[in-house]
Amino acid sequence: MKHGFLHSNIEERDGRLFFAGADTVGLAEKYGTPLMLLDEDRIRARCRMYRRAAEKYFGEGSKPLYASKALSFRGIYRIMAEEGMSADIVSPGELYTAASAGFPMENAYFHGNNKSDADVEYAVKNGIGYFVVDSVEELSAVDRIAGEAGIRQRILLRITPGIDPHTHEKINTGRVDSKFGFAIETGAAERITGEALSKKNVELCGFHCHIGSQIFDAAPFMLAAELMIRFIADIKEKTGYEAEILNLGGGFGVRYVEDDPKADIEAMIEASANTVKRACRECGVRMPRILLEPGRSIVADAGMTLYTVGTVKEIPGFRNYVSVDGGMTDNPRYTLYGARYTMAVANRADAEADFECTVCGRCCESGDLLGERIMLPRPERGDLLAVFVTGAYNYSMASNYNRVCRPPVVMIRDGKDTLAVRRESFSDMTACDI
Ligand code: LLP
Q1: Looking at 209, 364, 405, 432, which residue is catalytic?
Q2: How many CB atoms lie within 10 A of CB 398?
Q3: Closest C-alpha residue for ligand 1 atom 8
């Protein structure tokens, strides 16, 4: 039986696994393992799909932002700039990485629930396009620091519409309980809007909401769109202010395992657009420019991680452990969320997957697992293990726990590989140690 390969950029040729048209076995020999591969063609194709769909369904001026928390290093911001994408950045570190890659700062949106004065100053100094203001304190800080810099800073306000994306319901209390945003139902959203309108050095350009991640259904996006347009209409009625921009956030789902659905992202965008248009008509507000903020769905299935198998421990009556040379340090998502992945033995990609095992990392911690109940051909020491769909929230969440070095990132374009991030060295790791 051949392994199901989940996405069209993964295939088997003569028993070897190919990713984005490149031989994974050859790449592992060339760069070593653990190794993170990125399908650059796929990333670019996704950007184009989002740009086209945003304009087609929401109209001119509507556009996608890449939520760069999903995967952040200089090369990715260069690609985003070339593809005409805007970017969501959430820390001065992401800002620095983007700016130092030449990403145009006027197209960057600064998120985060706790920006310090120093963060605000840094972003203003770098000419950030927009702050997505997330607290009363931040609004004051932005107003003061923009005033000192002699500019009028554009902002959006982060609003909590109160939706559970997985039950598709408006939650009257639950989602108010969040460190993010100003809730509509408590009146906080209306109060901060009034305050923002009264500030001299900020220009309120509109509102932002983000309802969650890994959403496969259009319904929660439609509900969020509806509530946000009603909020815009309510504000217009009470203050005369009519929002120019509405950012509907990210969260479009990605297929990690066979039983995940295939998300039809364009259909979700079209459905949200129909809701926005209808709600605007009904409420008598003009159609705002719509921003979308996908992260995962741009990079996740453009990623694959390769590991070398070290030990295989069979415990009769219990389970089989397969240890690899990475783990929670490069992919903490199973440890943190129980997130499931599809895996294959890359150098024997046509062999029958009849061995059930727990794939674990090299850290001195029992919870350092990459997956349980994984079916593989029985791995041997030296085999190459491929974990699929690792482009999002793997490298960006990697750590140096146990002083394990972070893997390199290799981009594949037209079947050709280039190093985008080199492997971390021991001296990189000790660079800050005095
Ligand atoms: N916009 C905002 C304000 C967000 O907070 C996020 C994700 C996004 C956009 C992008 O969402 P996406 O399209 O990637 O679903 N570490 C977790 C995911 C955390 C998501 C945080 N915010 C994971 O590994 O699943």
Answers
A1: 364
A2: 21
A3: 250
**Does any ligand 1 atom lie closer than 6 A to the CB of residue 165?**
no
295 lines ligand 1 (CB under 6 A): yes
Ligand 1 binding pocket includes 64 (Cβ within 6 Å): no
**What tens digit of pLDDT does each residue of 139-172 get?**
999 999 999 999 999 999 999 998 877 766 665 5
Closest approach atom of ligand 1 to CA 252: 13
> Is the CB of 181 within 6 Å of ligand 1?
no
Q: What is the pLDDT of residues 284-315, one digit of tens each?
A: 999 999 999 999 999 999 999 999 999 999 99
Name residue, tokens 């990459």.
370
Three-state secondary-structure class, residue 46: helix
Cα(105) to ligand 1 centroid in Å equals 21
**123: Cβ contacts below 8 Å, ≥ 6 apart:** 92, 95, 110, 115, 131
For 240-324, where are the alpha helices, taking DSSP H only? 265-283, 296-299
97's CB contacts (< 8 A; 6+ apart) are 72, 73, 74, 77
User: What structural domains and CATH numbers belong to the chain?
Assistant: 10-32+301-429 (2.40.37.10), 40-298 (3.20.20.10)
State the residue for tokens 């809701």.
275
pTM of the predicted protein model: 0.96
Q: How many residues does the chain have?
A: 434
- Is the separation of the CB atoms in 275 and 298 below 8 Å? no
* 51 CA distance to ligand 1 middle (Å): 19
Question: Tokens 């304190």 map to which residue?
Answer: 137
- Cα 178 to middle of ligand 1, angstroms: 15
> In sequence order, what are the beta bridge partners of 324?
309
283 catalytic per annotation? no
- Cα angle 399-215-159, degrees, rounded to a multiple of 5: 85
Residue of 329, 325, 382, 390 whose CA lies nearest to 359: 325
Q: Which of 65, 25, 24, 15 is nearest to 303 (CA)?
A: 24
CB-based contact 192:184 (threshold 8 Å): no
Q: How many Å lie between the centroid of ligand 1 and the Cα of residue 391?
A: 13
Residue in the block written with tokens 């396009």:
129
Predicted pLDDT of residue 166: 76
Instruction: Tell me the three-class secondary structure of 147-183, residue by residue.
Output: HHHCCCEEEEEEEECCEECCCCEECCCHHHCCCCCEE
Query: Is the CB of 134 inside a 6 Å radius of any atom of ligand 1?
Result: no
